[in-house]
Write a structure and sequence with these properties.
The protein is built from no helices and 10 strands. It has a 10-stranded antiparallel β-barrel. It is mainly β. The protein has one domain: Beta Barrel (Lipocalin), CATH 2.40.128.
Length: 160
């Protein structure tokens, strides 16, 4: 993840949905991307939940180790609290892909990409196969695997 400045101020939108069959609902969003050392960064973001209002989060990403792996931590006032979720993944240029687990089998993925004047973040919930048996029989069909929960797109503020 590269940044041309010490801290980039970002503004844009963040789309959210709870369940895979729900539509993504856009809301305003802002973020700051701050480099930490040669490869690490923090991404502080604010977004608007359609029912609960303003929420905040922070993603801390370290540098790539000798094996090409990267570690991160996530805290989000709506998705991940009260503790941090530890994430592990890979970096390919300006794209970082991280994954973690919660509630034993459930998963969470976070992908962040910084390209030119834009920064994007996609957060996916990963439904385990075992959860399908708990779905209501009269509910919409669900499948195991990841689905987009949050899709954020921000542009760098040229004045920052």
């Amino acid at each position: 993840m590269t940044s041309r400045r010490t801290t980039d101020s970002l503004s844009g939108t963040c789309a959210f949905r709870l369940m895979p069959n729900d539509p993504l609902v856009d809301g305003p969003s802002s973020a700051t991307l701050t480099p930490v050392g040669a490869q690490g960064f923090t991404l502080h973001y604010a977004w608007v939940h359609p029912a609960d209002g303003e929420e905040q989060g922070v993603l801390l990403v370290g540098g790539t180790d000798d094996a090409g792996r990267v570690e991160g931590a996530l805290f989000d006032t709506w998705h991940q609290q009260p503790g941090l979720m530890t994430l592990h993944g890979t970096r390919d240029g300006d794209r970082v892909e991280l994954a973690g687990t919660y509630m034993e089998e459930w998963g969470w993925t976070v992908a962040v990409e910084s390209a030119h004047e834009a920064v994007t973040m996609t957060m996916c919930n990963v439904v385990p196969e075992s959860a399908l048996s708990m779905a209501p029989p009269d509910g919409p069909p669900m499948s195991a695997g990841p689905y987009d929960v949050m899709v954020a797109s921000w542009r760098r503020d040229p004045a920052s």
